[in-house]
């Protein structure tokens, strides 16, 4: 098994108050070889709300290059287990750029990242600077690396190098539809996590991330916070809004996940089959447009059979791809590349060039991958959150039927969205039931959603809209791509969201931005 070359262990020290605190050495990724702890009592509302001293933050210069010089960083101390608030603690890295006009300051805007496994630590210097001046004047922009993700106290499953491939982490069936290999992968990867990741892994969950955010609110000295959550961050925001309804000021949820408490993350994976169907026609129209130097066909209707035929050919005869992971372009790698490329129209040319090369029996240079250390960390955070939020079926027969049905109805995704992730072999049960998002509480949420979104399709966003009921208003944008506000949306949607953040004014009802 491939291990990190410089694996660090969680080091436990006793703080001045006498409680044990998990710390990081040199702010590096942390991997612990201790076996996962047994299941303990679930977190109850009373335990989660048990009074504890308000955390404090000490702001210093941020590490890293290319950051806005105004950005400052700090470390937030949080319980590893909120059912045992006086037990071991971990650290969460946070960042801030203060309001650009203190006299106009309204409060704090939390930038909640996607994922699970995404970070917003550098977002105050990045996408936060795309916000209109009126918004930047009013808010301190605050980012963070969620629990488990470096430079916060980090986790690492020590997966094999091959298991870090996106086409392996996403469970694509074999060419004949068999999932035997996927189930074997799930058992091996789940075993690695149980062996290598340490006790923090079983405390990764959306509810705990929301609790960390409320600790951050308290540490910032704020009675309420505003937030901009994107993708998986919309679920984090919705859960925060449910657990701490009186702590929310203005909340924007952008590119929204289905909050179904019976499936949670399984529903998000399953949504990709419809998301690809919703967005592929736009790629096909682009790829058949006259004058396009990367044109694939004369008619949009020809692009789908062209793609499916090529994927089937690569199933039978993969093309070697040195430096890639895996080191071949096979049918499932092509299908995964399609899914990834449909996140934004700017990705279409690279996808078309790959298709053109593969039809000629060649490949472009292998895409540059992030450092393996980072991939290990992100994979572990993603796995821990996905598998701890809700119990996944362990029955092979259930997955086999779902995959067969999906392959028949959605050939572009070949059964992957309903397949068995490593959660199918996860060694521990969730410590608490998923949070049910409801319409009870203040009405302070604005949803913004592109009509055609490969990762968070409109159908799932409508489920979140229905769950929130009177608490929310939804802006549906006639655009394509994942992430709507200030990204792949349109001026109408952007203006509506910016007005809400700057003034608190929402549309009287749901609106459609053409």
Could you describe the 3D structure shown?
With 514 residues, the chain is an alpha/beta fold. The protein has 15 helices and 14 strands. The strands form three sheets. A ten-stranded mixed beta sheet has the order 3-4-5-7-6-8-9-12-13-14, with helices on both faces. The chain has a two-stranded antiparallel sheet with strand order 1-2. β12 (445-452), α13 (458-468) and β13 form a beta-alpha-beta unit. α8 (303-316) packs antiparallel against α9. 50% of the residues are buried.
Relevant terms:
alpha/beta
What coarse outline follows from CA principal-axis ratios? globular
Distance between the termini: 52 Å
Q: Order of helices and strands, N to C? A: EEHEEEEHEHHHEHEHHEEHHHHEHEHHE
Mean pLDDT score: 91
- Unreliable spans are 1-49
Taking Cα atoms only, what radius of gyration do you get, to the nearest Å?
23 Å
The fraction of residues in strands falls at: 5-15%
Helix count, DSSP H or I runs of 4 or more residues: 15
**Major beta sheet, specifics?**
10 strands, mixed
Quick one: how many beta strands? Answer: 14
Strand order of the largest sheet: 3-4-5-7-6-8-9-12-13-14
DSSP helix fraction:
25-40%
Quaternary state of this entry equals: single chain
- From the helix content, strand content and strand pairing, which structural class follows? alpha/beta
